Automatic annotation (TrEMBL):
Probably acts as a heme chaperone, transferring heme to an unknown acceptor. Binds one molecule of heme per monomer, possibly covalently. Binds 1 [4Fe-4S] cluster. The cluster is coordinated with 3 cysteines and an exchangeable S-adenosyl-L-methionine. Keywords: 4Fe-4S, Chaperone, Cytoplasm, Heme, Iron, Iron-sulfur, Metal-binding, Oxidoreductase, S-adenosyl-L-methionine. The lineage of its organism: Bacteria, Bacillati, Actinomycetota, Actinomycetes, Micrococcales. One of its GO terms (molecular function) is metal ion binding. It comes from Microbacterium azadirachtae. It comes from the Bacteria. Residues 23-265 form the Radical SAM core domain. GO terms for biological process: porphyrin-containing compound biosynthetic process. It is found in: Cytoplasm. The keyword Ubl conjugation does not apply. This is Heme chaperone HemW. CDD domains: Radical_SAM. Its main location: cytoplasm. InterPro entries: Aldolase_TIM, Coproporphyrinogen-III_oxidase, Elp3/MiaA/NifB-like_rSAM, HemW-like, rSAM, rSAM_sf.
């Protein structure tokens, strides 16, 4: 289970939004649907997830109906504030969404679409553990309206998977990818680098295997040690080594080189998508995660499920964490929101710089304060910011800048 929820103001029991909140009717709107169930807890994970022994009265087989109650509440709340906006993207995350029957995921998706509508060509993603994906599951998800599957590969090397407490068999990644492809779904694979005992050669093997799967999209995240996790305790006790920052930097550079050679372009520090096909119609080639881009661009989304976070017109709120508490609130006709906050202008600007600077499309220089713009030349001299892009009015990180993205943000905001 994840750490404590953020501090914030109390959320209203009826879920109503502040009267002065101004929602732009033409702005994009997305939905995140959290499925908090896992068969086992990975040692590095601090997401809000629960194994069967941790549910304490919550019922996995009733979860879809419970979440659909929150969808109904969201529709009621948002309908009071003007025209409902159709969904641009939908994302099922977890946990392991594919631990639920595909029919349950389909019912949740239908409820969201019935409540808000959905734009033509919308991206609908389901995260999946490779061991839970069969041809029948992928086909049923596609028939329900899913367009994309994000498969948790993490590594192709057995001892690295063991270090991460991943239980899937490496060969089942290809089985899952083939099943998704046969159902007509776009495919992303997720990787993690820097696990205890992982060498640069191990990482190269995982990258090569991922490329050979011919996915549309690859995410590669450096292992971060989160307080309260099993892995953090193992490191504290000296049972396994902590991640090596220099080795992780080498791994990132290797990933960027291997993926570029294979026809993938980075579009966010940890994400690569298939390169544009020459002569393709606009948008046909674009396999970037549109849902994640909605987060990075700061558009609106409603997060459904225990512990899920939402953002509408600058207002943020988050749900109670435990599935039993979440179900109880909704059964009583109350909002499951636990707290809320409205970041001030300074905090919102910091977040915009933090997120937009990580994207290949970059941060417009005119979004920076005057004193921050004067520091860009120094960042170019240090090899952290692309000079050509800056001349065109946009701050874009170089490969070295991506490795030192936090330092760039500090330079622009301190």
């Amino acid at each position: 289970m994840a750490g404590p929820l953020p501090l914030g103001d109390p959320a209203p029991a009826d879920g109503r939004l502040p009267a002065d909140l101004r929602i732009e009717p033409e702005s994009a709107f997305s939905a995140y649907l959290h499925v908090p169930f896992c068969r086992v807890r990975c040692g590095y994970c601090d997401f809000n997830t629960y194994t069967a022994s941790e549910l304490r009265g919550a019922r996995q087989d009733a979860y879809a109906d419970t979440l659909i109650q929150e969808i109904a509440l969201a529709r009621e709340v948002l309908a009071e504030r003007g025209p409902l906006r159709p969904l641009s993207t939908v994302f099922f995350g977890g946990g392991t969404p594919t631990l639920l029957p595909a029919g349950d995921l389909g019912r949740m998706l239908r409820a969201a679409v019935d409540a808000f509508g959905i734009v033509g060509g919308a991206e609908v993603t389901v995260e999946a553990n490779p061991d839970t994906v069969t041809s029948a599951v992928a086909r049923e998800l596609a028939e329900a309206g899913v367009t994309r599957m994000s498969i948790g590969m993490q590594s192709a090397v057995p001892h690295v998977l063991a270090a991460l407490d991943r239980t899937h068999r490496p060969e089942n990644v290809r089985t899952a990818v083939d099943a998704a492809r046969s159902a007509g779904l776009a495919v992303s694979v997720d990787l993690i680098y820097g696990a205890p005992g992982e060498s640069l050669d191990d990482w190269r093997a995982s990258l090569t295997t991922a490329v050979d799967l011919d996915p549309d999209h690859i995410s590669a995240y450096a292992l971060i040690i989160e307080d309260g996790t099993k892995l953090a305790r193992q490191i504290r006790r000296g049972e396994v080594p902590a991640p090596d920052d220099d080795l992780q930097a080498d791994m990132y550079e290797l990933a960027d080189a291997v993926l570029a050679d294979a026809g993938f372009d980075w579009y966010e520090v940890s994400n690569w998508a298939r390169r544009a096909v020459t002569g393709a119609a606009p948008g046909e080639w674009d396999q970037r995660s549109r849902h994640n881009m909605a987060y990075w661009r700061g558009t609106d989304w409603w997060g459904f499920g225990p512990g899920a976070h939402s953002h509408v017109a600058g207002l943020r709120w988050w749900n109670v964490k435990h599935p039993a508490a979440y179900a109880q609130r909704l059964a009583m006709g109350e909002s499951p929101a636990a707290g809320t906050e409205r970041p001030d202008a300074e905090a919102a600007q910091l977040e915009r710089i933090l997120l937009r600077s990580r994207m290949a499309e970059g941060l417009p220089l005119d979004a920076l304060a005057a004193d921050a713009r004067t520091r860009v030349a120094g960042l170019i001299a240090d090899g952290l910011v692309d000079a050509g892009a800056a001349l065109r009015g946009t701050l874009v990180l170089t490969r070295r800048g991506r490795l030192l993205a936090d330092a760039v943000v500090r330079a622009l905001t301190d």
